[in-house]
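Data card: per-record layout.
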Amino acid sequence: MNIRKHLITRTFLFGMLISELHAQTTTKIKVEQLPETAQADLVKIYSKYQVNSMVQKEDVQGQTSYKIELQKKNKLVYLLYNNEGTLVSKRKSKSFTFDGMEPVKKPAPRANDGHNHTH
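The structure for this 119-residue chain is written out next.
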């Protein structure tokens, strides 16, 4: 086998191995499929939030986690629970929507931009 084919084959096999290591199964779920403590958090803490998405993930080692995206007005909350229902991660951000009608701001003129504007 020439060296180029050998390198291509090895690179392809290495890529397949890496993709297998990062493979995971993601399934959309309903609230009833969450661990009880995660369900309780949604009722007690996030009852005024809308559920945008809820998925169960299983990695190649068989570890299960639950990822939930919640929204209240323009506030987004991302929750990650482990298989036992323990909150592992919580991240907040703002939701932005653009409909094309936003005013375009022109940059303010700079006095000292290196150009001589006296014509």
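Known properties of this structure: The radius of gyration is 25 Å. Helices lie at 3-21, 36-44.

See the next section for split statistics.
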